Amino acid sequence: MFKKSKVSTAVALALGGSVGLIAMPAFAQETAPVAQKIERVEVTGSRIKRADAEGSLPVTVIKREELEASGSTTVAEFMRTSTFSSAGNFRPQSGSSAQSFAGIDLRGLGSNRTLVLLDGRRLPKAPNVGDSVDLNAVPMAAVERIEILTDGASAVYGSDAIGGVVNIITRKDFEGVAASLGYTKPENEGGERKEASVIVGVQGEKGRIVMGASKTGRGMVYTRDRPWGQDLGVSSYGNNYRLPSGAYSAIGNLRGNPTIGCTDENFYIAGTTCSYNFNAVAADEAQIDSQAFFARGEVQINDSWKSYVSASTTNTSSFGRYAPTPAQLTVRANTPNNPTSSDIVVRHRTAAAGNRDTSTDNWLSSVAAGFQGKLAQNIDLDVGAAYTRSVYKELGRNYIVRPILEQYVNETRATAPKYDLYNPSANSEEVLSAIKATTSRDSIFKQTDFYAVGTFYDLFQLPGGGVSLLASAETREEVFGDIYDSLSEAGVIEGSAGNSAAGKRRVSGAALEMVFPITKTLEASAAGRFDKYSDYGNDFSPKVALRWQPLKNVTFRSSYGEGFRAPSLPQLHQKESFSAESVFDPVTCLALGGGTGGNLTAANDCNRGKLVQIDSYTLANEALKSEQSKQFSVGAVWDVIPAISLKADYARIKIDDRISLIGAQDLIDRSNGTDPRSIPAGLSVIRSANGAIQRVQQGYANEGTLKGEYLDVSATGRWRNAAWGNFDHELRYSNTLSYDDDGNELRGTLGLPRYKAVLSNNWKRGAFGLTYNINVTGKNADDEDFSVGTYVTHDIQGTWSTPWGGKLIAGFVNVGGKMPELVAYDGRNFNFYLYDGYGRQAYVRLEQKF
């Protein structure tokens, strides 16, 4: 029944010569001679960039061979090496509220401004973050190639495509059976990775089907197993009370012995304070396990029509560990835990209650079906529907109920405190169980799509050829829920933050795209899309582009477009959440006794950066509008000789009315007049009669402008020699020329390198192959105290194609064992988004085809 058959697909790249990243079928005339058939295929670029294959938009294609040669076991791992991920990507981190999440951030503009597609259709947002796609949802075994569009594309896809588009294309033409096993062992303890997959493909006279399953896993990385983890973690949340000066001292000093209350495991005396070594127990990276099943089938109905259906399910689970809960408590005067005559504030680490352990479980299931075919000679149609459902569950153990702990600390039982601060490990299991809670989080994101796309060829003729038109319409419903347990919602759980959110919206969109071959060498294109959101309003996104090919081997291109990003459902509908934050506010500092009036000493000076802790509340904003972008790009492609090709593209992006979180310190600075900007409506700083801050209402607002300029350069070379074998080389270089955040130039500052580059080299001769890659991340931060130098790593891989249809792959990622510089960033010892602490990573993989 089944045998191999060719299926022609029509595609057009928006503004590029065809229309973009949406696959459409086109079948040649039955009466036309075979030699005259025009087979339209999905084209966004090729590994060796050919001028006649380049459109007016810069698209980089990552083929499966490159994915396999990278040594990466997941899509998320590979995308962290992309030069377009200029500020790095978020990856799974223990102790984070997005513990199992892996994002993709193009241009450093944020993962919420990077649109992720799967076979041309947008993936749903991860329910645990609410505004970005989790790359862990896409199994590496299912991927045929990845296409990266480094230009705005709202005129084609709508919201989120400001920083660019990542289109993940799944395998469709595979035939046979293939299995793979792999293992990666880092030089440093922890983070070992395992992978296994099987894929089956059958093709026949009337259709084809590809299905597969995969399993990957990465071990937990404990801080203590890293060189920096050998240092004692320093935290005032050990067992300390606040002195009148604002400093902290071990509570044992209340009884004349600083070691009292600081003798449990991992507690230690640091000067006069009792500190806690959180490095001894906490994990840097969570354990991640993922398993997936995927299938796609097509059936040829007749000569003009076919139907298709795809289905997949992915389960990603994680386990993370954070140090025991830190708690700030008020201990009343003349109680056993406080021998003084006045109330004191104690920062206590509830180590006796155990470490904070968090387990997550996420299921993403999807199904899509549709029909592709011809309505008439030059009219193609694609209609279909898709449904995705992502369910996320989280359990947190050994979190502390603050009111109960505070009650027990101040309550006396038989002349002894119910909870003994001076000897925490002596507290009974009954007491420890009473102060603990298991937190929970149940989240969901459902997305339902209906779409229709029609392509009209040769509407009329121009000197360069026939004009093409693509018209599309779609409607999408998004349903989001992120529900926390009742104690977390009430804000009484210590050591955790966040609150529930829920909402839904309907999005309707329509787009037109046209390509005008003005002459044989000059092509113009235009596109426009209108989107209507049920919750905030409408947006229109236009785009125009030119492509000029004065010589067969030279192409120039340029485009201008406007785009938008819609506010996320959590930003519109999240419940108010509480956080205790440390801020700088001299008025509050003085009101709380932190200064001495007119003659302030350097050690006790509220005007010299002394921090105070205040209560802040984060509020959603139902009045948010979309943020707007304008993008301009210009580039050129030159095939120097058939074996060498060069490409350069310049891009400029401006984002207005940014959707920003206006935080507590920003609002305080505005209330003090040190920041001249006004406080947005609905946000506030509420003070008591003496000026002390009682409450800060922070939240989201449309405010500010972000401008970026970028230069991308690539060079490819291919050499063929009968005696020495085949050589392929490619250099990719991305430079952030400017990153202006409301007038502040951030290019080259900590976390935003000036450039990233990758040089890949491949050799193959007969059954043997060798890959050598050089990865470079430019320096960031020139400050004397915060400087991270240029970071270079080397990867090597060798392959042997066996006589029995298998392939043995072995190699090293970061063969030199390069480690990151220890400059703290975002609460970690180094920048987790750009670097890792694995050191040299040896891996082996065996593939077998049947």
Topology:
Blueprint: E1 10-12, E2 22-24, E3 59-63, H1 64-69, H2 75-79, E4 114-118, E5 121-122, E6 143-149, H3 154-157, E7 164-170, E8 176-186, E9 193-204, E10 207-218, E11 221-222, E12 239-242, E13 248-250, E14 267-270, E15 273-276, E16 283-285, E17 287-300, E18 305-322, E19 326-331, E20 344-349, E21 356-376, E22 379-401, H4 402-410, E23 412-413, E24 416-417, H5 429-435, E25 436-456, E26 461-462, E27 465-466, E28 468-484, H6 486-490, E29 493-494, E30 501-517, E31 522-533, E32 537-551, E33 554-565, H7 569-573, E34 577-584, H8 586-591, E35 611-619, E36 627-641, E37 644-656, E38 659-662, H9 664-672, E39 684-687, E40 693-702, E41 705-721, E42 725-741, E43 744-745, E44 755-765, E45 768-777, E46 780-782, E47 787-788, E48 791-801, E49 806-813, E50 841-849
